[in-house]
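Why does this matter for the project? Reviewers at the last site visit asked to see concrete outputs rather than summary tables. In response, this paragraph embeds two records directly. Each consists of the residue sequence and, immediately after it, the corresponding structure tokens. Nothing has been edited or filtered.
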Amino acid sequence: MKNFLQVAFIGEKKAISSLIKRGVMLCVVVVLAIAANAGTYKYLEFTNISGTKTVFNVANLTIKVSGNDLQVTNSDGTVDLTLLELASMQFSTTNTPTAVDNILHADAEIHVSTITGVSLGTYSSLVEACQSLSAGVYVISNGTQSQSIVVK
């Protein structure tokens, strides 16, 4: 019985921790928007733990927490960002040229090659690719668009 209660408590503790992280992330977004006077900024940039940046135009931007994902929607569409993989976010007046500019959805299949054109393969998602690649500069493609990324 004691082991069962310990396992149940650990499960509850993880669920509460996940809920707290989501709540804190949402509060940070709201506070940043108010404190930074987000109306003067044109872009919102998210950086995940692998160093990949995703930049969104703030025109018609909505942000919603759904499970363990942060759903970011603007006129270009909706992208799900995993909350546990987000390292930072910031408002900007310019679109960072080294960022993944919302050309890929989180679950989109991508092709990766080196900057010299050597094919490294196809991955089921950008997250999978970044977890598999060593540090360096790569070219990613979704079939119609390509872009350089830096994996740290």
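We now turn to the second protein, recorded in exactly the same manner.
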Amino acid sequence: MKNINPLFFAALIIAATACSKKEAPKQVAPNDGKFNVTLTADQMSSVVVKEVNQVPAAEEFTAVGEVSFDENNVVRVFPIVSGTVETVNVSLGDYVQRGQLLATLLSTDISAYQRDYNVAKANLEVEQKNIQRSEDLYKSGMLSEKDISEARKDFANSNSEFNEKKQILELYGGSSERLDATFRVVSPRPGFIVERNINAGTQIRTDLNTNIFTISDLKTIWIWANVHESDMSKVKEGDKVAVKTVAYPEKTFHGTIKKIGTMLDPQSRVIRVRTELDNQDGLLKPEMFATVIITSQTSEKVLGVPEKALVLENNNFYVMRATGSNTFEKIRVQVGRKFSEFTEVTGGLNAGDKIIVEGSLFALTAANQKS
């Protein structure tokens, strides 16, 4: 056997060592400037750069929910007389003002109140003539003190009864000027007609206890989420909530838990959790289905980045990290848990690093093309 040069063995050892180092996993893929890119001022206006920070690692879970009225800001209109609906002046979704006419009913109740009013009015007119005559007789000395006292008492009683019947008539929607047996339903407050349960010809009975209109301004609405018994320990008042709807899949509504129910539904084994949301733009409507993502409060913090900042390429996640003025480098990162608004980063970045959080795909593509 020939003698082998010791230098050959040394070369083999160095090569093997280099190969092993090359295959060892790294948190950051080295690019040596190969995957750097410098953006112009116009390109910078299309991206958003933010600093990477520690964020609460709150546990989150999803519940099914629905949009409902703000019960503290809603009025249900009930009929206070029986009768037949003559006209309905508003439609579902209409905005009404306080005092606006909503519907009219032909009611025998109103007819009875009007009859009582007319009788009281006629009696008062008679007593007015009697008291005037009695006062004249009393002044001329032809009527005793006792008789004038009786006449004044009768007039006062008639006047009191007339005012009572007039108030009752007006309270029940009648008018002393319109004796037409018509009950007028008017809006007690401004808002939207969110429920309408009558049509022309509908028979109304006061003992049915069914509202004919529901009015709400919808500036705030309630989200009721059904939380399963197994998740009850994770929910507390003040927890953050993200709400998504089928109608607006790209939009997320944010709020906090205001109230947790005290009764567990024995059939579904869920408890109702309420969130109040601002609805000034009127997008959310009662009875909409909603997906409710509840984030529990916690003191644990992790390094997190918005999901938009991450770009998946060849089964690896990358971000574009700032290295100078308008200059960014492509960095491979390791990710951990995913939350509703961010993703945990376990390697590749440090707190204080600045990365592109919107427009990262554009910048990364430019870096790839440069290479």
